[in-house]
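Write out the 3D structure for:
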Amino acid sequence: MLAWWIAANGVLAGIGAVIALAHPLTILSSVLAAPLTSLNPMIAAGWVSGLVEAFSRKPKVKDFEQLQDDIHTIRGFWRNKVTRILLVVVFTNLGSSLGTFVAIPLMVKVL
């Protein structure tokens, strides 16, 4: 059951980070953090991966200045480092949540 939990949460959180075009260290951190953070209501996998993304690809003043223009287009959302961090947080959290909903029925079958 532990293997199903780790695999479902980790893989789907990692896929979420990949969809957000995250840094490779961010993807790794989301895979490692998701199984643990799913059990703790005080912290989310997306927060961990967002923090790693913020340290890996530091936003510059230019990114904050262009934020108002970049949020009006899909391309701008992916190009701006500030909104990219938000996308990493959202997609990693969605992947981790989906992993929880996938893992529970798989674990029940093992019982």
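The chain has a mean pLDDT of 93.
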